[in-house]
Each structure stands twice: as structure tokens, then as C-alpha cells.
Design goal:
It is built from ten helices and 18 strands. A hairpin with a 2-residue loop joins strand 14 and strand 15. Helix 1 runs parallel beside helix 4 and helix 7 runs antiparallel to helix 8. The radius of gyration is 21 Å and the shape is elongated.
């Protein structure tokens, strides 16, 4: 790792996940000098690359990663997304052929994505401070003074906070939500895998997603907290039986489940931008995993911020970024929040749940509506 005595930069990026890494690579691609960027993260590259979680990347995200030579990951293509409502009317099927694309998106390991991005960043010469934490940041009219956990100090004209976290339960000042769910995540095998097809099934408690992951599926099952505790306590046999009851037989019989983990779910969409500090990715908006939009929204944040800061690494550039991202961010946050909240807070079989089921049926019957929804998921809102 590179160390310098007097550390002064144009841009300091805090957070070594895919969004922070992608931003650093995008800035270099757009002509920002490597020695003007500082990259700070609390984990070593080796540790971050071991993360086994699965993530869903849209086609648009894949294109952004290709632009920075970081699409060297082992990934499973999603060619169809089948959306249904359990035991009720309402379904739609989104197919990549409607968009003349080879895939709607991809499923890959979080650690593999971090490894690919880290390799690309390592070749740029950007100075990396890791494993280091930021213990204090103080801004003034001209720069931000950053103190690291080893007591080293750096100075940056602008600081980008890209350090996200697991799903939180905070409410925002601009979008108030108080629902709470638990996500049960695992890898599951079945005896009749449908190649390339992802499933999003709305149950009475929330969405249940199966994402194609090689010859098995990545499971994200959103339920109310007490039910989540019960599911975690079950034997594998009982859990698979409960999953079969909730999902049905569209992929045959579930045969095997990996170790299960749970995460609390909520919405944190409160941005803490200031004159010389800007937040992106999960640091700016931690979303419910319905439709898998969190990472994709963050990568779109990174792309727009890189465009702006490459031209204007100033407080005015931060203001431009906030204005440019408002439409896509607000629409994505509100759509995912609405779908999650209907099932987290509404009574089973309530009118809001029925209306969502009806909307799924209408989307399937109206190709323009189906295309609009899928393009929002793949590319975000574009003015």
C-alpha cells in the first residue's frame, strides 16, 4: 500500500464496495489524474473479495462496468423475470427479447465483482488507504480535513461517501416510512431449474425472489420479523417445505438449502450532502431488495458523479450531480418502497394487495407498460 507524508487530493472516496470502486475507475476513465484521488476503506481487498453474497446487476449496470473493463466476472444471465402474486390473480413476464437484448441482467457473487473492480483500480495508481476507517471529517470553505483510524490526515477538495451497509430501519426526512421486515437469504436447489428465468413472487408478507445462479437459485424471502425468526429456527426439511408452500411448483421440488442468513429491512433515503461532501449508493439510499435495485441505482450514481466531477471537481459539481440524479433516485425509491410497504404494512388480502395484483395483470396485457417498467429497472429514469 502506498503512503505519503503530505496528503492532498482533489477527491477522496470513502467506501470500497462496488459503487466506490466503480466511481474511482470511472473518474480515471474520464481523465482525472490518479494521484488526485484518494481511496479509503475499512477492509483489505482480500477480505472484501471473499464476500459470498449474490447480487443482481441490470443490463445497464453491466454496460457501465464494461466501460471500465470490470466485467470480468462469472455471472448467470437473467433472460426472463416472472412476477406473480401468491394464490391470487396477477402475473407478468418480462423477456429480454422484447428489448432486443441478450439478457435483462445478471447474477454474480459480490466478492467476484469487488475483485474485478479492485484489479482494475489497482492498475490505475490511485493511492489506497486500507484497511483504514475515517474517524473524523471537518470541512471548511476550501477543503475537507479527513482523519483516519491510524491518525493519518489527508486533505481533499471534495469527499464522496460511498460506504453503505446492511439494510437499516432509519426513516428519512424526505420520505417517512416505518415498515419493518426481515429478509431470509440462502442458496437453494430444485429438481427443475428454468434456465435464465428469475422469479419475483409477492406473498401476503412481502416479495419472495429466486434468482438464477448457475445450476441453483439465490433466494431472498422477505417476511415479517416473527415469521423470519421461525423460519431460521426450522430444520432444512421444514424450511424447504415452507418455501415450497409459499412459492409453488414452478421450479419443481426444492431439494437442498444452504446456510440461511437474515437481515432487517427498512428504508433509509436521507441524503446528507453538504458543500464539499456528497453521498452515493447505499450511503445515500438503502432500499428494500424488491426488484433488486439498490446496487444498480448506486452504479448509476457513480456514473453521473464521475461525469460531473471530471469536468467540475467543485461544490458546484456536487450541486449539478444532485439535480441530475433527483428524477431517477426519487422514482426508484418510491416504486420499491411502495411495493414493499403494501405487503409489510397491509393486512393479508387487503384492498392495496389486491390492487397490486390487478396492476400486475394489466402490465402483462399492456406491452408499453411492461417495457416502461423493465426499462426503468434496467437503465433507470432518463429525462
Amino acid at each position: 500500500m502506498t503512503s505519503v507524508d503530505t496528503s492532498s487530493f482533489d477527491i477522496a472516496i470513502v467506501g470500497g464496495g462496488p459503487v466506490g470502486l466503480a466511481l474511482a475507475c470511472m473518474l480515471i476513465k474520464r481523465g482525472v489524474a490518479a494521484d488526485r484521488i484518494a481511496f479509503i476503506d475499512g477492509k483489505t481487498t482480500a477480505t472484501a473479495s471473499q464476500d459470498p453474497r449474490s447480487v443482481a446487476l441490470s443490463w445497464g449496470s453491466r454496460e457501465l462496468l464494461k466501460q471500465i473493463n470490470a466485467w470480468s466476472v462469472n455471472a448467470t444471465a437473467i433472460t426472463q423475470i416472472h412476477v406473480t402474486r401468491r394464490s391470487r390473480f396477477g402475473r407478468t413476464l418480462i423477456d429480454c427479447n422484447e428489448h432486443q437484448l441478450p439478457a435483462l441482467g445478471y447474477v454474480c457473487r459480490y466478492g467476484d465483482l469487488v475483485r474485478a473492480l479492485s484489479a482494475e483500480l489497482g492498475a490505475t495508481g490511485v493511492i489506497q488507504y486500507r484497511p483504514r476507517l475515517v474517524t473524523h471529517a471537518a470541512q471548511n470553505d476550501t477543503h475537507v480535513n479527513v482523519t483516519l483510524s491510524d491518525h493519518q490526515h489527508i486533505r481533499a477538495s471534495l469527499v464522496v461517501q460511498a460506504e453503505g451497509g446492511v439494510f437499516g430501519t432509519q426513516t428519512s426526512k424526505d420520505i417517512h416510512r416505518d415498515y419493518l421486515q426481515t429478509a431470509i437469504v440462502a442458496n437453494v436447489s430444485s429438481d427443475s431449474v428454468v434456465p435464465g428465468r428469475a422469479f419475483e413472487r409477492f406473498t401476503e408478507e412481502g416479495p419472495l425472489a429466486l434468482l438464477p445462479d448457475g445450476d441453483r437459485y439465490s433466494l431472498v424471502w422477505c417476511v415479517r420479523p416473527k415469521h423470519g425468526e421461525a423460519l431460521l429456527a426450522m430444520s432444512d426439511t421444514d424450511f424447504l417445505r415452507a418455501l415450497q408452500h409459499a412459492f409453488g411448483n414452478r421450479v419443481g421440488t426444492f431439494t437442498q438449502i444452504s446456510q440461511r442468513h437474515s437481515y432487517p429491512l427498512g428504508l433509509n433515503a436521507h441524503q446528507t450532502n453538504s458543500q464539499r461532501m456528497v453521498v452515493i449508493g447505499n450511503a445515500a439510499q438503502t432500499l428494500h431488495p424488491v426488484a433488486g435495485q439498490g446496487l444498480n441505482l448506486g452504479l448509476r450514481d457513480a456514473a453521473v458523479l464521475a461525469d460531473v466531477l471530471a469536468q467540475s471537481p467543485t461544490p458546484e459539481g456536487i450541486h449539478q450531480f444532485i439535480q441530475k440524479r433527483r428524477g431517477d433516485r426519487d422514482l426508484t425509491v418510491r416504486l420499491t418502497d411502495l411495493m414493499a410497504r403494501i405487503f409489510a404494512s397491509s393486512e393479508d388480502h387487503s384492498l392495496p394487495q389486491s390492487l397490486l395484483g390487478l396492476s400486475l395483470g394489466m402490465i402483462d396485457l399492456l406491452p408499453p407498460a411492461r417495457r416502461a417498467l423493465s426499462e426503468q429497472m434496467m437503465f433507470g429514469w432518463r429525462s
